[in-house]
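As a representative case, the lines below give one protein's residues and fold tokens.
***
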Amino acid sequence: MKSKAVLSLSLALLGAQQSAAAQATVPVWRELVIYPADGAYPAELARRGVQGEALVEVTLDEQGRRATLVRSSSRSAELDTLAARIAERSDAATPVSGARSGLVKILFRKDHASTVAAKTCADFNVDAAYQAAVFPERDIRGMPVMVESISKLIYALHRDGKGRSFPGMGPVLDATVAACARNPGDGMLDVMRREALKLLEK
């Protein structure tokens, strides 16, 4: 009995390894970034700070029909459903080198360069709360909106001749998170600039 159990476990582990190896050989067909303005990303989800990335495998049958399977979840059932629907579209799932299966990476991003300037601290606080609840292992400082904002800040400080001794990114972002929590009615970039200037004066 024991040897049969060991054999079953060995076969199961071998099958899992083969499955993982097979998945690793599936080519990436496309990566798409979806913003609320695109229409495929509901504004209501964006307002709640729901963001994430989903990896969807698309398989074509002999008749060219598509089937989708979410291989890596965004941790939002709503975003996963949207990602599968987007990946199934003919313009997103384009076979490469004759492969019948491919991966489409869908990134749902709430902010981009043209929207960051108008972002309020209240809106950022919603995003930060969602990030902390759904991705507790991730640093809030790594949120895409932070990356977009810090690049704008660096540009503004250099333009004003104050970027020569730019403070470390970590302290600026930490100060911004704390100040936005205290002042939800302020603009996020205004707060970030203010906190950066305070650090420069120290």
Summary: The mean pLDDT is 83.
